Amino acid sequence: MMANLRAGLIGLGMMGRHHARVLRSLPGVDLVAVADAAGDPHGVATGLPLHSDIDGLLGEGLDYCTVATPTAYHEELGLALAAAGVHALIEKPLAKDTQGARKLAEAFESAGLVGAVGHIERYNPALQNLRSRLADGEIGEIYQITTRRQGPFPSRIADVGVVKDLATHDIDLTAWVVGHAYTTVSAHTAYKSGREHEDLVAVTGRLANGTITSHLVNWLSPMKERVTIVTGDRGTFVADTLHADLTFHANGSMPTAWSDLAQFRGVSEGDVVRYAIAKPEPLRTEHEAFRDAVLGKEADIVTMRQGLATVSVAEAVLLSADTNETVKVSF
């Protein structure tokens, strides 16, 4: 019987504590040590060696490591892991800029290591179900993807604004569900809470296949909203990722009796279907996929190259907002 993989975790904050919980219960994996320069604020290290830095963690003989520190430290920590021959799952965004993200992607590729990014929305059951339905052509040609991600300010975030912290979710999931990269973006941002980073962004974009995208993201709403709407020539899917629900609104085929409306060449309302889907915890699904990738199995991970692409789009969004011009995406 094969020995369990030896896993480490650096970063024991709000997200780190959830990674610790999942890693402790993951079959085929032993969480052997954790690290955080600020100690263990949520008490997740019970029974495990607690280190103050990556060097101490590397001394534990790790197979792989999860990095859940603030974004500013991702590049330095990731490069240390690559140099030590340790596979890594790094929280999103991959790095604070494209330069750092590219360095990480290249370091893990050249070392032959599995490097992944924690874009957890890809593992949301509603979006996984949506993606397979889009791939099967259930709504035909895809016209538009709209996302809204709104809620109150999270005190856990200090080093980035909504574009790199939140909009990166929507950038990644949008390119992923359709299977096409962004080509252009146009954005506006606002600074309303007295911080140096933007707390509201509105983005429109275009994907390589012509799909039009729209993202509304802020930290200024008293209610939480996480929705992805995909419109095509046969109807519209609405994925509520807060509750992992997926609903389909079909284009209707009923003739209309009202003569003014009869002149309208668009669509009419049809049947509405809400799908019953299994709802495993996305973070657990993400960790299972990464574990399988480390073991050399076929696994749906978010590669560092894909993480780099997302950071590139986020930077294009910020550049567009800064220059008030549409920006071509390159990475």
UniProtKB/TrEMBL annotation:
InterPro entries: Gfo/Idh/MocA-like_OxRdtase_C, Gfo/Idh/MocA-like_OxRdtase_N, Gfo/Idh/MocA_Oxidoreductases, NAD(P)-bd_dom_sf. GO terms for molecular function: nucleotide binding. Transmembrane segments: none annotated. Pfam families: GFO_IDH_MocA, GFO_IDH_MocA_C. Gene3D superfamilies: Dihydrodipicolinate Reductase, domain 2, NAD(P)-binding Rossmann-like Domain. Residues 132-329 form the Gfo/Idh/MocA-like oxidoreductase C-terminal domain. Residues 6-119 form the Gfo/Idh/MocA-like oxidoreductase N-terminal domain. Belongs to the Gfo/Idh/MocA family. PANTHER family: BILIVERDIN REDUCTASE A. This is Putative dehydrogenase.
